[in-house]
Design brief:
- The structure is a homodimer.
- By secondary structure, chain A is an alpha+beta fold.
- Chain A has two domains: 93 residues, Nucleic acid-binding proteins (OB fold (Dihydrolipoamide Acetyltransferase, E2P), Beta Barrel), CATH 2.40.50.140; 305 residues, BirA Bifunctional Protein, domain 2, CATH 3.30.930.10.
- Chain A is 29% helix and 26% strand.
- Chain A is built from eleven helices and 16 strands.
- The longest helix of chain A has 31 residues.
- The two termini of chain A are 31 Å apart.
- In chain A, 49% of the residues are buried.
């Protein structure tokens, strides 16, 4: 698609020397006595513009001398390949320069600004090549996932984010004024993606927002996040969900490595590895024994893992199997939602898993309980009122196939893939308890 | 991806006669004296199962006699090609039948139930082949759009749905209890997709929910809808946005026709046509003259079109150009948001358009005003307080390229593509002023 006469910076190197038009923003200006240099950046890269000062170029020289960093400009000039130019071995000798919009000269953030300051000015922070790359990686990753799903006969759904009641827990629920009454923001698409099963959709996926009124300020939580969900019919156990899940991860990482591997290595110092199939699977109880043997005792009152435990088991898996991923399986019923199916021979355990990537949990998956009488019992046991769950329980009363699926945090995957320590770095606009702006 | 030993119904016809396993739900049962027939349906189609009654098949016969419609079953049997069988020329002679989940025998909806009743039981309504097709079409359409965007270097973004203030109008805003304060649900991703322009992303797209506290009950409005958005840098006018938009529509419809054209003709009686490029463009003032000449006077106090006017101009375009689409351009500044750019030579008109498809508006697009001083003036003129828009106005103060884009209702496109008269038919779960369930 060509909208205007314009060459993207990334495409310049392949052109022969000659006239070009380039459009982007001013990254830096070196205003010297005999020659001026401007580094222009666009969505695809950076290029050096050059203006030797003489009588003919005086007008351009004056404009350049007044150029504020960040201003958007359109330039024409003569492209010249020159190995001595550090920046890509090319430069553009200016014949014209038009300032499209002038920037305020004082940039409010610097390279060493803290994350909160940078988030205040996220639109400037996103101009950094690393940030630009994050979202190109996101684009490639999602497209690879969706392509895999489409090729495997999945149906894409968009479930409502406005609900009459909670889908996960009443504790972290946002309340909405809804005409004369109340609505709640979906904490996950759980109930509605399950609805696709009695609806006979077979296999579904969704990528969309989810909301948690979680007051915590950790580096890996947000009040709004992009949830990647899939749900499939006719499974025999959680194993079938894991098989789908691991194939999906391989498809995504393969596409990202192919398209951005070199750039990720350059800008993030990360050599992406395509994981081998199958991913290691370790029952949670065994994982805890392994971690304990490594000298770490999980510090939790319940049966769950903790973040250090996840790091430890990931380190073990990396050492033993050379793998970045591990499925922790068979979580205790006591710490899983009522809709997880339990083992037939040991109801204290569920047909569920967490997927850990580079030491951090990115996803929870499970086979769902589809027998309505068992489901009601499990809900009661968790202190839930089956009457409040009425619409959800109806899904199971008119026939439903055995099914299961997972929910996964998109930004967590990106954070771990690019070895970032804070989710905020890889979310377009972060939302937390004290952040609604910009 | 094979999860379990199972053949999808749509793949049976290509198999040779022999043993098969099929899984799905009971569509109908004909329980005759000498032979029993069951139509089994799955996500891909329907197949006839047959059980001749004799001593050997008595157990299966008893199960079939007790089968409730909608129950999910697993069957094995002998596939046989037989041209006399109406349903696809194949049938499966049963060797086993397992009921996975029994349905309540009384189905709460019938083929002639009204839309509200059917929405109460949407998960059963979605079992109808037409409904299944709607969402397979949705999947193909979205994937074709995203593929086109990805091939054209667009970046996919997920903008926050929780905002500190309104993005469109204060009138139709949902308020959220946000910890100690308030937040609002995004009425569109407008401000945030524009933010990608000063961020230097170049071209972006998003498919995600948008929320309007619109109390109306028309056949084409919802309080939550899936918005399809794109925004591109370095345009010269709204014409560049339309060029992108029309190419996208062609890519989508081409993919849908290729994959589902025959089925759409069969189930909806619609012969999909791939629109020719370019789509007709008619300035709104001219469209009104044409409609008036056809004997219809637009009944509005302001300068806008009305639904009947849209139908009339669409009929005109169909007669004159044989086209299903028309861009109505150059809407009056008085009825467009403050962020639409106005014509340099006539500030009473905007660089904007509506896209009309089969007689109904599906999208609004425009070049955006990127000059911050002009933007502030236009905001004031609309009675908005620039201080409240502070974070948005900042996007334009540090440099921004000329840009524009569109927002489009996904379900409107589907509704019009499949000649449905009510949006509720093509939304997975409709949300309206009095509907939050299921």
């Amino acid at each position: 698609m060509t909208v205007t006469e314009r060459t993207l910076v990334k495409n310049l190197a392949a052109l022969e020397d000659g006239p070009v038009t380039v459009r982007g923003w001013v990254d830096t200006v070196r205003d010297q006595k005999k020659v001026q240099f401007v580094v222009l950046r666009d969505e695809s890269g950076a290029v050096q513009l050059v203006n030797p000062r003489n009588d003919e170029t005086e007008q351009i020289a004056t404009t350049i001398s007044g150029l504020a960093q960040g201003s958007f400009i359109t330039v024409t000039g003569e492209l010249k390949h020159d190995e001595r130019v550090k920046l890509g071995g090319i430069e553009v000798k200016l014949t014209s320069l038009t300032v499209e919009t002038e920037a305020i000269p004082e940039t409010p953030i610097a390279a060493d600004s803290g994350i909160d300051k940078r988030l205040d000015w996220r639109f400037l922070d996103l101009r950094r090549p690393e940030m630009n790359l994050v979202f190109r990686v996101q684009t490639t990753l999602e497209h690879a996932w969706r392509t895999w799903w489409v090729e495997n006969d999945f149906i894409e759904i968009h479930t409502p984010k406005l609900m009459a009641s909670a889908s996960e827990s009443r504790a972290e629920l946002f309340e909405v004024e809804y005409f004369e009454g109340k609505a709640y923001l979906a904490q996950s698409p759980q109930f509605f993606k399950q609805m696709a099963q009695p609806a006979g959709f077979g296999r579904v996926f969704e990528v969309g927002p989810a909301f948690r009124a979680d007051p915590s300020f950790t580096s890996r939580h947000a009040t709004e996040f992009t949830s990647v969900d899939a749900e499939i019919s006719w499974i025999d156990s959680a194993e079938d969900v894991m098989r789908m899940h691991e194939q999906l991860m391989v498809a995504g990482i393969t596409a990202v490595k192919e398209k951005h591997g070199a750039e990720i290595a350059e800008l993030f110092g990360v050599e992406l590895e395509i994981p081998t199939l199958p991913f290691p699977r370790i029952p949670l109880a065994e994982a805890k024994r392994i971690v304990a043997e490594r000298g770490y005792e999980v510090q939790r009152a319940d049966d769950d893992m903790d973040p250090e435990g996840e790091r430890q088991i990931a380190a073990y898996v990396k050492e033993e199997f050379g793998h970045d991923f591990v499925f922790l399986t068979d979580y205790a019923s006591s710490i899983r939602p009522f809709y997880h199916m339990r083992h037939a021979d040991d109801p204290s355990l569920t047909q569920s898993y967490d997927l850990v990537y580079n030491g951090v949990e990115i996803s929870t998956g499970a086979q769902r309980e589809h027998r309505v009488d068992v489901l009601i019992e499990q809900a009661k046991e968790k202190g839930l009122d089956p009457d409040e769950l009425g619409f959800y329980l109806d899904f199971f009363r008119y026939g439903v196939p055995p099914h299961g699926g997972f929910g996964m945090g998109l930004s967590r995957v990106l954070m771990l893939m690019l070895h970032q320590s804070n989710l905020r770095e890889v979310v377009y606009l972060f939302r937390g308890p004290t952040r609604l702006l910009p």
